[in-house]
Structures are given as C-alpha cells and as structure tokens.
Amino acid sequence: MQQTFSILSIPKFITGRGSVSFITSLEKKRIGIIRGGRSYNKSLREKIEMLAAESGAKIQYLAQIRNEPSIDDIFRCMEEVRSFEPDMILAIGGGSVLDTAKAIHLLYENPDMEFKEALIPFTLPKLGKRAVHVSVPTTSGTGSEATSAAVFIDPLTKVKKLLLDNHLIPHYAVLDADLTDSLPDCVRITTAMDALTHAIEASTAANASVMTRAIALEAAIDIMENLPGSLNNCPNGSVQALSREKIHIASAMAGVAITNSCTGLAHSYDHPGPAFSKAHGAVCGLMLPYTMELCGTHPSYATLAARLGYQGNEKELTQHLIDHLFRLRESLSLELTFEEMGIDRIEYFNRVETWSKVSLDAIATVVSPVEMTIDRGMELYDSCYYGKRPIV
C-alpha cells in the first residue's frame, strides 16, 4: 500500500537568549560535554560550570573538536565516555562538534556496535536509554542540532562517511543566540550561506512535503532579510541582536527542512570544498545560484522572489532570485567564482569529470528538480569557475 502521509521529525526546540540555562531543568547529574575550540570560550565555560554546580551535576569534558570531524575523534574518547557514564550528552559548538556528539551518543548506548554497522542508513536503534542528548549550536549554519545526519572524514582515505538515521536527531536543541555574538563576520557569513543553501534546496527537493517546504521558505527569507543586519558593523544594537536571533533560528529550521526532505545540487556537487580545503558553506553558497539555473523555473524560487518584493511570471521571478543572490554576495564581499576563490585552474579541471560522475548517484542529485548528466555536471563546474552568469 502506498504511503499517503509524512512525519515531521524534529528535536524539542528551546529558544531565546539565555536559554542555555535550560539544561539545569533536566535534572541530570552526570553531564558529558563535547565542545568546540574557539566557540567554547572562557565565559561560556564558566557559565556551563556554574549551571552544573547550581544543579548539583558533575561534568566531564569528553572531547574537544577543532576541525572537520574525523572518525578517530569518536573512538579517541569512547573509553572515557563509558567510564564516566553520563546521563546527559551535551554538545556545544559548531557542526563538527554536534555531529561528533551524535556518534558518541550512539556508540555509548550501543557498545558492541561496529562503525561499519552504523554507516547503514536508517537502521540505527532508538537512543535515550542511558543519556539524553542536548545540542547547543554556537554557529548559525549547519543545522546539525536538528538533523538526522553526522558526517566524518576517514583518516586513511580522506573520504566522507555518513551516519544517517532519525534516531540521531538530538532530544533537545537549545537555540541561544547569545552564543553567536562573539563570532567574526567571516564565520557568520559563511555559516549563513550554508543555512541559506539548505533552505532553498530543501524547498525544491522532490520529496519535500507541504509543511517541509513552508519551513524551508521561511528560513530562506529570514536569512536573506536579516544577514546584513546581523554583522558587526550594524549601527543599531537592537536590530543586530534580533537579526542574529532570527538567523540562528532560521538555521535550525533549515536543518529541519533538509532532514525531512533533502539538500540539492550545491551539496552533492560540493567536492571543490574538501579537495581544496575551502569551507563547506563558502563552496555551497557560491554554487547555489549556478545550480538554480540548472534547475530552471520553480514555484519555490518564484515564491521567495515575490516575498523579497520582485514581480513577474515564474520564469522572471526565478531570474530575479538568482540575480538577488549574486547581489547579496557582492554586498558581502564574497567571491562569485572559484577562480576568485584562488582555486588552481589546472588541478580543478583535472577533477571535474570525476566529480561529475560520482555526484550522479547522490540522493541530493536524485531528488533535485533537474535530471543531471556528466556533461551537465561539467558545465556546472565550468560556470562556477569562470562565472558564467546563469540565465533561466
């Protein structure tokens, strides 16, 4: 019998500035913390330790993740995790930290599971028998606090490995915009571009429900409208604070959207990022308008353009949105091409055919609005390198 319903999978969201104090309300007594590097600064550490002391909880720092998460990062701390026996896994940081916490939680509650078993999509057991998982993002981009995925780098092959199951979604996602105020603009912009790409792509995925699409579109609008006001040069403090909070929430909404539908071509063709050590959000944000041209006119693009104040038919509105994204990038002093990003031309084009082949079977490619071919992929990479402006 064909399924005629969809289920929206989300964590319990805790929002508002200062909401990190929510962790004490869970009354847990053994808090195992996975944290980031720069984002977990002295003031935040003191606050977490004070909250734990007030609730009578013992804390232990289990892992500190500074770069792209590696499989080694998981296993390096598992002995300490099992020895401490936390009743709360508390992840505080960017996407790498939040992803690592998902894997740690999984293997903590399933000590006999081998990592290769965990890589089989949608076969993982329900979590929460031993610990509750609380995710506290300190950037507004990956949406990992709301997603069912965790990505890791194999230390030997340097290939990405993916854990994927709705049981990996944290039990609670605490969206405290106070924790984003110290971000430099370069990080704020790059992560916002990742979230914007999540939102726009999720709205066009073939498997998106009406509810998922609505969430994705609202997230995209909030990011585009509030990103300029969130930057450090904003002269109005109250506008800046509200803009940052809206983007922080929109990032999580975009995470919900991709968990309940999928990403798109900018993500399945994002190979220049790991190949040339470029930030994921920077690469996806750059590729987004070029991939939209490939996808062609779409009701979601038209809706977003109309919400931004543009007029015209669906084709015209799609073009308006693509042009708007280029102008947004220019206003933020972001590169418009991989050439501008400083990627070596010869090395880049030596890999383009391989990238175009391996991207064809990615689920994000399959559910995108366009049927891709190797030639179309190569044309996409050509446009992204030289900046051939998309015309729908």
Quick one: how many beta strands?
A: 8
The strand line-up of the biggest sheet is 1-8-5-4-2-3
| Number of continuous helical runs | 16
Main sheet specs: 6 strands, parallel
Radius of gyration: 21 Å
Low-pLDDT residue intervals, each spanning 5 or more residues: none
Brief characterization of the structure:
The chain is α/β, with parallel strands linked by helices and about 400 residues long. It is about 50% helix and about 10% strand.
Fill in the keyword field for this structure.
six-stranded parallel sheet, alpha/beta, 8 strands, globular, two-stranded antiparallel ribbon, 392 residues
Protein architecture, described:
This protein is of the alpha/beta class and 392 residues long. The chain is 49% helix and 11% strand. It has 16 helices and 8 strands. The strands form 2 sheets. The chain has a 6-stranded parallel beta sheet with strand order 1-8-5-4-2-3, with helices on both faces. It has a two-stranded antiparallel ribbon with strand order 6-7. The chain is globular, with a radius of gyration of 21 Å. The two termini are 39 Å apart.
Helix-strand blueprint:
Layout: E1 12-15, E2 30-35, H1 42-55, E3 58-64, H2 71-76, H3 78-84, E4 88-93, H4 95-109, H5 115-118, E5 132-137, E6 149-153, E7 160-164, E8 172-175, H6 185-204, H7 210-230, H8 237-260, H9 265-268, H10 272-276, H11 280-295, H12 299-307, H13 314-331, H14 345-358, H15 363-366, H16 374-386
Parallel strand pairs: 1-8, 2-3, 2-4, 4-5, 5-8
Antiparallel strand pairs: 6-7
